[in-house]
Specification:
Blueprint lengths: L3 E10 L2 E11 L4 E5 L6 H8 L7 E6 L2 E6 L10 H10 E4 L11 H12 L4 H14 L15 H13 L5 E5 L7 H17 L3 E5 L3 H7 L2 E6 L2 E7 H6 L4 H10 L1
Parallel strand pairs: 3-8, 3-9, 6-7, 7-8
Antiparallel strand pairs: 1-2, 1-4, 4-5, 9-10
Bound molecules: adenosine-5'-triphosphate (ATP).
Amino acid sequence: MSSVKVENVKKDFGELSVLKDINLTIEKGEVVCIIGPSGSGKSTFLRCLNHLEKLTSGKIYIDDELVFHRENDKSVVKTEKEKLVEIRTKIGMVFQRFNLFPHKTVLENVTLSPMVVKKVGKEEIEKKAYELLDMVGLRDKADEYPNRLSGGQQQRVAIARALAMDPEIMLFDEATSALDPELVGEVLEVMKNLAKKHSMTMIVVTHEMGFAKEVADRVIFMADGVVVEEGPARELIDNPKHERTKKFLNKVL
Ligand SMILES: Nc1ncnc2c1ncn2[C@@H]1O[C@H](COP(=O)(O)OP(=O)(O)OP(=O)(O)O)[C@@H](O)[C@H]1O
């Protein structure tokens, strides 16, 4: 488990200012849901946390260690390449599109990165992969190829694959948005289990308000690249303070 601190983070795409001075602290073991209208910068924020996007300016700390740092004028990225790999192994990410390796079996999808990146032995990682596949309810699919699985099953494999790296922090970027409605529940169930039983630091961008309310310790409402409001999940969803939050929740609930 790790904590994350974000200081004065800004991200521009050309003329477009997508993140405008974000300041947040996420504690060890905390489950945080980020909600907000489409285009408000939620995905970009997550992608900045593991450096899939370079910051325009600001600082990101993991466990009080400054890991990403960029100044406006000098374009200095503090992080060296090897360090980046080390940091990325601490941060697992699950995307909207599962991006499994199509020519690898489910088991191989889960074991590949730990073997290649962390040099974990085959026997050890396979044992762990089976445990993870058990956890996501897919042990019996270990030898299947991804195209033989439903979207919900593929997404559960993607979660197992991310967990196989033993991450300290898990980022979920609209993990259920691309799924048929009847498959959403099975993926949320796995995420819920992870949050409740495995005390993992989780940052979840989601449109699932029920999930946010039930599972999150804290909800952050973002709009137009700023954090408009944050607070305990139930409090924020049932009793939002800002007009912008109220408007958004009225629309989606
Ligand atoms: N690589 C990029 N290049 C240029 N613009 C981008 C890029 N990535 C995102 N944007 C823009 O940044 C803004 C925020 O996008 P982002 O995906 O972070 O929003 P979001 O809140 O996650 O939205 P959604 O809920 O629809 O996924 C959008 O206007 C988007 O078009």
